UniProtKB/TrEMBL annotation:
<dbReference type="InterPro" id="IPR043428">
    <property type="entry name" value="LivM-like"/>
</dbReference>
<keyword id="KW-1133">Transmembrane helix</keyword>
<feature type="transmembrane region" description="Helical">
    <location>
        <begin position="155"/>
        <end position="174"/>
    </location>
</feature>
<keyword id="KW-1003">Cell membrane</keyword>
<keyword id="KW-0812">Transmembrane</keyword>
<dbReference type="InterPro" id="IPR001851">
    <property type="entry name" value="ABC_transp_permease"/>
</dbReference>
<feature type="transmembrane region" description="Helical">
    <location>
        <begin position="282"/>
        <end position="304"/>
    </location>
</feature>
<feature type="transmembrane region" description="Helical">
    <location>
        <begin position="208"/>
        <end position="229"/>
    </location>
</feature>
<feature type="transmembrane region" description="Helical">
    <location>
        <begin position="6"/>
        <end position="26"/>
    </location>
</feature>
<feature type="transmembrane region" description="Helical">
    <location>
        <begin position="84"/>
        <end position="104"/>
    </location>
</feature>
<feature type="transmembrane region" description="Helical">
    <location>
        <begin position="111"/>
        <end position="129"/>
    </location>
</feature>
<feature type="transmembrane region" description="Helical">
    <location>
        <begin position="38"/>
        <end position="64"/>
    </location>
</feature>
<feature type="transmembrane region" description="Helical">
    <location>
        <begin position="241"/>
        <end position="270"/>
    </location>
</feature>
<protein>
    <recommendedName>
        <fullName>Branched-chain amino acid ABC transporter permease</fullName>
    </recommendedName>
</protein>
<dbReference type="Pfam" id="PF02653">
    <property type="entry name" value="BPD_transp_2"/>
</dbReference>
<keyword id="KW-0472">Membrane</keyword>
Amino acid sequence: MKRFPGSFGLLGGVVGAVLILLWVGADGYKQTLVTTTATYALIALGMYVPYLMAGSLSMAYGAYAGIGGYAVGLISTKSGLPLILAWVAGPIVAAAVAVLLGLATRRLSGFFLAAVTLLFGMAFTAWLVDAEGISGGSGGLGSLRKLDILGWQPSHYQVVVGCTVVVCVIAFLLDRLRMSPWGVIVRTMRDAPRAVEAAGVRVPVMNLVSLAIGAAIAAVGGGLFTYSAGSVTPDTFTLNLVFLAIFMPLIGGAATPWGAVLGAVIAVELTLNFPAVETSGTLILALGVLVILLIAPQGVIGYASRLTKLVGGRRG
């Protein structure tokens, strides 16, 4: 029987998610860690399509996550609309902003693209501080109302479960997208754009689509984190998070979106939940990335896959 494409990654992700949820239990601190991990994972997954598949490094993902977060904050505090609409409006607005930014920077690549989008992210943060009437200024938006779905208000643990499910679903869909004809074209476009253009594919349009997909996913993560935290400020999604998101797929394994999820788990564990190194977690993470790149260039998942094949070969 033919194996369902992406089923192995989905199985591993579901098993990992179940184990994490069992570990969390009713512990509020652990629930916060899982929500943070889900946010990191979604931003890293948002960067996966344009960065690792299309080869376009944008540093504006803090802004995209912020758009998702402020969509939740604004709809919650300044309107009577159902809060669930925030996870529709936020990704749509973030995708539109990504397309506009992509059009403005379509002739840039590499360092210049990263620099310009980095400046955009900084400008967006500055605008949030100045736009007090909209964003609440430096204090942000707080006291968000609870999500109400036909009279059902999810508990904090149920929100954690929902965040975990969203990460698994998006990682699975991106894995399927990676293996689809569209994904093959995008990955080929990264390495040989002229050949893809000669085949009749409009490379600039494909780049814009990948940027829109990535921004929408990051906005979903920003919205989930804001709802879980109960507030959002201009400093909620910093450049530090964007830099971490770049390295998460390298840690877990850039060959599959599940590597970004595993990288997020490792990053949060080292930077937030490892008492022995909590004061220098970022330094430990940086050293870990260096070691992984030297020993296992394909990341933890790639290294584990290689070991599995070696063990299987010896048994055979």
